[in-house]
Specification:
Layout: E1 4-8, E2 25-28, E3 31-41, E4 53-59, E5 65-76, E6 102-103, H1 107-122, E7 128-138, H2 150-160, E8 165-171, E9 183-189, E10 192-197, E11 200-204, E12 206-210, H3 218-236, E13 245-255, E14 258-268, H4 276-287, E15 295-296, H5 298-308, E16 319-325, E17 331-337, E18 341-343, E19 351-360, H6 366-384
Antiparallel strand pairs: 1-5, 2-3, 2-8, 3-5, 4-5, 4-16, 6-7, 7-15, 7-19, 8-9, 9-18, 10-11, 10-17, 11-14, 12-14, 13-14, 16-17, 18-19
Helix pairs in contact: 1-6
Region (Disordered): 1-22
Protein name: Para-aminobenzoate synthetase component 1
Organism: Cellulomonas marina
Amino acid sequence: MAHARVVPGAGPVAGARAGRPGEGEASFGGLVARRVVEHVDVTARPEDLVTPGVWALVGTFEGAVHAWRFDEVVERSPASGPSAAAPGVRLPWRGPGPDAWTSSLDETAYRHAVERVRHHVRTGRVYQANLCRVLRAPLPAPYEGTAPDAAALAGVLAAGNPAPYAGWVHVPRAACGPDDPGAWVVTASPELFLRVEGDGVTSAPIKGTAATAAGLSDKDRAENVMITDLVRNDLQRVCRPGTVAVDGLLRVEQHPGLVHLVSTVTGRLDPALTAAGRLWGPLLAAAYPPGSVSGAPKRSALDVIAELEPVPRGPYCGAVGWVRVGEDGAVRAELAVGIRTFWWTPDDGGTLRFGTGAGITWGSDPAAEWAETELKAARLVALASGARMAL
């Protein structure tokens, strides 16, 4: 039997909203959490993410970041598998039909948007911008009026597309009071946004995707170097001078059905920021949203994205993961970039969403960029739609 340890949550801080018993679950890595007892709007009150315990964090690309602390946390070995993350009886996942998916941008519109980004590169407005589209499909009748089972979908993805930063979180809306928006996110993210441990911080941006390593291009390598430099500059804003370094550049990582180019940036946080109540405001102000899914310069790229993308990205391209606050206020955290991510909201009833995109530079070919978005989406959308795929 896999090792498991129950870690009781600390009591909520004065004035915190208590969660309704039994509501809320999340799983990331070896952590399985149940029973939400506290919610923090991290965007508005980052200094409130201080209560000792384990928190799940979900941020949208548009900047709304929320965290939930859980009363019961079980630590399991990875050998426990995805089913260990789902206590109780679970029904099999039933996803949309494979032909039910529609896109916020069709191929013609996406290729036109690529040309618009290239125009902005030519005029000097940006060097690179990440251009995305959102896929959506209706869920079958069993989920009408109720939340779909995030753990069931996570199990399907774990079996068919294992990912280093896979996880899921489902917190019902208003679980900790009327201001709690809740969250329903299932991710198979391959990309590390931020890892914090002690005074160390690490980010590992992905830029460059192809079916095989031989398909990676000079454009992919140039784009990766550009975004790695952006991430390095982001971290320099919160790290001690001279401590930010690129520890790995242009590594090829193999993932199911494709390869990525990955670089790793590390640094040592300013000592004034290492305690929980002082960390998240400056760190998110410096690094959010992730550079690999926005562009360079980041502010200009965000403006271009807002002009060209017809719908919000939501949790896609945001952040999702866990934060652990110690009794001494020390922080450990691991947040993924919210790519390869499905999400659902009660506002839309039975609609499941998934995002896909590509980084656009002057060297981009519109047809090739569309094909890259198809490659990134194909396997995961097929799995969510009931396909069985060999690893």
